[in-house]
Design brief:
single chain; alpha/beta; Rossmann fold
Length: 282
């Protein structure tokens, strides 16, 4: 497995693959890898001749310096995990200076309202930072396909919009959420929870499933939402940022269920100081 710290060295290695017309897949990550990440990498390996996994904790998408400082970084362990998928992966681990040679800062974007609510409302500048680093990675790696998890459902929609705006010609592949044994969506942030807390937090997924079932049977979305928030609030040291039925394409909230196939329930929960995201389709 080859590890690259600079764009120059990575592209020297990729030039041969491009000359051969090989398909190139990219899996962008911030490290602290878990089975959710590995499922993306495994899918990319199955579908491409060459796969790049980037590991970079992007400062511009954090609006909370403490959150950035607490984000887990474990490069040696991450590389060991990646080797269990394939020894032929190319791992890109740039420094902040390599990614932001012009100085640290996010570009301004208009994402057609996709960033106006939910994570965008609670985390000022977050998606500007996401857009900036993803655009940089796409320009540096020039993949044919890029792989993202559906856990960050709003982010996935925004990246698809970014690709349309910039006409990158990259296929964005959304991959199903991978869950811990009791149902909690896998996330690097879960490392900040004790094992028993992870079990307790599985009530978030349980509540999403119940809400989806009730919506299909009753279509009383406001009542279902109220009950779901009440159920999650019963957890100790918990606050619900949002729990909403939304149009899966526009991410706008919906009042009545008219098209289940284009409906998603999204939620963000502060559980014992850790922001947990989850969602489910109908």
């Amino acid at each position: 497995m080859d590890v690259f710290n600079s764009v120059k060295s990575l592209n020297e290695r990729l030039s041969f693959s491009r000359d051969q017309g090989n398909s190139l897949g990219l899996v962008p990550t911030m490290g602290a890898l878990h089975n959710g990440h590995l499922s993306l990498v495994a899918k990319a390996v199955r579908e491409n001749n060459t796969v790049v996994v980037s590991i970079f904790v992007n400062p511009t998408q954090f609006n909370n310096s403490q959150d950035l400082a607490q984000y887990p970084q474990q490069l040696t362990a991450d590389i060991a995990l990646l080797k269990t998928i394939s020894e032929d992966l190319l791992v890109f681990t740039p420094s902040v200076k390599e990614m932001y040679p012009e100085g640290l800062g996010a570009k301004p974007y208009s994402f057609n309202g996709l960033d106006r609510r939910w994570e965008g409302e609670d985390r000022t500048g977050h998606f500007q930072g996401v857009g900036t680093v993803v655009e940089k990675l796409f320009e540096m790696v020039r993949p044919n396909q890029a792989y993202f998890g559906e856990k960050d459902f709003q982010q996935l929609a925004i990246i698809r919009d970014l690709v349309r705006q910039k006409t990158f010609g990259i296929s964005i592949i959304g991959c199903p959420i991978v869950r811990e044994p009791y149902g909690l969506a896998m996330s690097s942030r879960n490392e900040r929870l004790k094992p028993l807390d992870r079990v307790a937090a599985a009530v978030i997924y349980k509540t999403l499933k119940i809400a989806a079932q009730k919506a299909l049977a009753q279509n009383l979305l406001s009542e279902i939402t109220h009950e779901a928030i009440k159920e999650i609030h019963a957890l100790e040291n918990t606050a619900v940022f949002y729990f909403e039925f939304v149009n899966a394409r526009s991410l706008e909230p919906i009042k009545t269920l008219e098209n289940p196939e284009n409906t998603r329930i999204i939620t963000a929960v502060n559980f014992k100081g850790v922001r947990l995201l989850d969602n489910i389709g109908l």
